[in-house]
Structure formats: structure tokens, C-alpha cells
Amino acid sequence: MEFTHIRLLVDNYKECFLFYSDVLEFEVIWGDENSNYAEFKFNGATLGVFDRKQMAQAIGEKYSKDIAKADRTALIFKVKSVEETYQKLKSKVEFITKPTSQKDWGIKVAHFRDPAGSLIEIYESI
């Protein structure tokens, strides 16, 4: 697995996009203020910003504005094969989603949580 970036899950996507692009002046490497997902590059690191409602839908959870019950970040790992990694890990972790092709995103993904409840995504390009 290759750790690629941290993704912030936000309820105010456009405001956050403008904060990271215009205020902090991070380089936008994917997305725009209306795309509901963007990636920024700074000092060799990548930060993703994603609309939290869309992330909830992607993992099959009900969206809630109740912050105490909401995912606020996700750790993102690139793998050679989502299907192979899923098969290897499924006896060790409880997956939230099975391997799924997200054609609009150009990736295949699966999701699970660590023991503290942190959301983890594994993905491969398609």
C-alpha cells in the first residue's frame, strides 16, 4: 500500500476550496470550486477536500449534520489491486464497502475503518 493523501470531509466545500486555493495559496492539482472534490499540493504533500455528503453516499451511510457522528477525515491508500487487497484483508477488517468502480472518479475503491473508527479508503486507477 502507498499512503497518498489525507482527505478532509467538509460540509462547506466551496468555502474550503477557496480557503486552501486563495488564502493558503496551495496549488490545485485536481478539481475546482464547484467540483465537490479537489486535491491540493504543497511541500510535497497532497490534501484532498471532499463534500462530506457525497462521501457518506459513497460508503452507504446516512448523511447527518451531527458532527459527533460524522466522518471528518479519511486516510487514502493506493494499492495495485483493490480486489486482491480486499481479499487479503477481509478476514482481518470489516469492510464498509466492497470493491466498487467509481467511473466518474476514474478509480476502483473499497472502504473500512481502523480500530479507532477512522475511515480508510483503498483505491486503484481504472
Describe this structure in words.
By secondary structure, the protein is an alpha+beta fold. The mean pLDDT is 90. It contains three helices and eight strands, in the order E-H-E-E-E-H-E-H-E-E-E. It starts with a strand and ends with a strand. It has an eight-stranded mixed beta sheet. It is 21% helix and 43% strand. The longest helix is centred in the first third of the chain and has 11 residues, at 13-23. 21% of the residues are buried. The protein has a single domain (2-125), classed as 2,3-Dihydroxybiphenyl 1,2-Dioxygenase, domain 1.
Query: Largest sheet, if any?
Result: 8 strands, mixed
Q: Widest sheet: strand order? A: 2-3-4-1-5-8-7-6
Q: State the distance separating the first and last CA atoms.
A: 17 Å
Low-pLDDT segments, ≥5 res = none
Instruction: Give the overall pLDDT as a whole number.
Output: 90
Number of helices: 3
CA-based gyration radius:
15 Å
Number of strands: 8
Strand content: 35-45%
Can you tell me the CATH class?
Alpha Beta
Q: Which H/E pattern describes the elements? A: EHEEEHEHEEE
Shape: globular
CATH topology: 2,3-Dihydroxybiphenyl 1,2-Dioxygenase, domain 1
Helix content: 10-25%
CATH H-level homologous superfamily name: 2,3-Dihydroxybiphenyl 1,2-Dioxygenase, domain 1
Q: How many domains comprise the coordinates?
A: 1
Based on the coordinates given, report the CATH architecture: Roll
Give the class from helix and strand content and strand pairing: alpha+beta
